[in-house]
Amino acid sequence: MQKVLTVALVSLLLRGSFGRTVREASLHRYDVIFGTKNELLCDEPSSEVRTEWRRTDGSDLPAGASQQNGLLTIDPTGHDAEGHYECVAQIPGSNAETVVVQVFLNVIVPPRITFKLSPPLSKVHPGDKVALLCDVSGDQPIQVSWHKANGESLPDRVTVNGKYLEFAQISKEDDGRYICRASNRAGNATRTAEIRCRNKN
Fold first, then answer.
1. Which helix (H) or strand (E) holds 147?
2. CATH (one of 3.40.5.10, 2.60.40.10, 3.30.70.20, 3.30.505.50) for 112-195
3. Separation between Cα atoms, residue 68 and residue 36, nearest integer Å
4. DSSP string, 118-148
5. Bridge-partner residues for 192, per DSSP?
6. Among 18-32, 37-51, 80-94, 115-129, whose mean pLDDT is lowest?
7. Tens of pLDDT along 44-54?
8. Superfamily of domain covering 5-108
9. How much is the pTM?
10. For residue 141, cis peptide bond before it (omega within 30 degrees of 0)
């Protein structure tokens, strides 16, 4: 006679970059940050029960994944970690097993900044129209803001147009360091650009 396995208490714990969960029936959804270490723990309620994490679709666990005693560790968390997982409980020596909990991991990417200056820095001269683009990648929505270094206010003649910092007629007074800050639900990024006007020869 096949023994039916009933797990009275198995707890689920996510340890890592995010701890927020939205419960949807028996499915737990988690946001995890790309490139970080994350752990899923499916507790073994007794020495007679063993738990194991699997992909719901039967595919291999993601790169960087290892598990022991119900603890699934993914380090680092890549895009291939996104998807459905299930914790399966089983009594050693028995063919009976129970899916204890199902989890969906949503991998989110923090912002990353690169600068694009038009015209190139080596060709910026007083009186030129200059635009500095804070080009940001990462999961949307992303909020972008511009600031002057050392807490100074942006010059009145400077216009912020979304990701662009625009100088209608740049001058030597505009020389300095300008900071772009970007943020999304995965994190924040900051990068500084230095602008120097060069007199025409």
1. strand 143-148
2. 2.60.40.10
3. 19
4. ES-GGG--TT--EEEEEEEESSSP-EEEEEE
5. 179
6. 18-32
7. 666 777 888 99
8. Immunoglobulins (2.60.40.10)
9. 0.73
10. yes
